[in-house]
Design the sequence.
């Protein structure tokens, strides 16, 4: 890729075949290699970035190369980028295996459900919640009941994300 130092933001895949410089038109400009550098043409080289970096929006001139600045992602940008990896749902088996690895059993979940005061969660709703948990084929990451139980088990939202990411590999 090529760009001209007089217009860094316009990048070409190759030099133009016709170019106007200081009121002079050059045909077959690509062949006039002795003029390119003198008239401001430089190679464009984009740096390699890691998963925690991004490129700036604008091109800059560094020495004789046109490039983009490498910017480290903020902690918030990294967290947002990682959230994209969290699947919307996972299978019940995957969730239960992940919970088992954290020493959280079905009985722990049922005890959490039972511990919710009846005034907040009537007995019939508790039984329905247990049936849903026992017979579900999958669990949605943003399910309010799931997140309540996770909180009751002392899990952070990041830990629940990790459960869904790891559980997605089954």
Sequence:
């Amino acid at each position: 890729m090529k760009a001209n130092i007089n217009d860094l933001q316009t990048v070409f895949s190759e030099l133009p075949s016709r170019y106007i410089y200081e009121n002079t038109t050059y045909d077959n400009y690509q062949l006039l290699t002795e003029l390119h550098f003198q008239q401001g043409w430089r190679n464009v080289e984009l740096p390699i970035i890691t998963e925690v970096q991004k490129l700036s929006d604008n091109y800059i001139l560094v020495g004789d190369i046109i490039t983009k600045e490498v910017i480290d992602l903020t902690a918030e940008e990294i967290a947002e980028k990682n959230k994209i990896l969290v699947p919307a749902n996972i299978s019940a088996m995957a969730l239960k295996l992940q919970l088992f690895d954290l020493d959280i059993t079905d009985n722990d979940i049922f005890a959490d459900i039972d511990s919710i005061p009846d005034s907040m969660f009537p007995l019939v709703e508790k039984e329905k919640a247990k049936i849903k948990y026992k017979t579900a084929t999958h669990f949605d990451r943003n399910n309010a009941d799931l997140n309540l139980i996770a909180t009751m088990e002392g899990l952070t939202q990041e830990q629940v994300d990790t459960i869904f990411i790891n559980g997605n590999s089954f």
Observations:
- The radius of gyration is 29 Å.
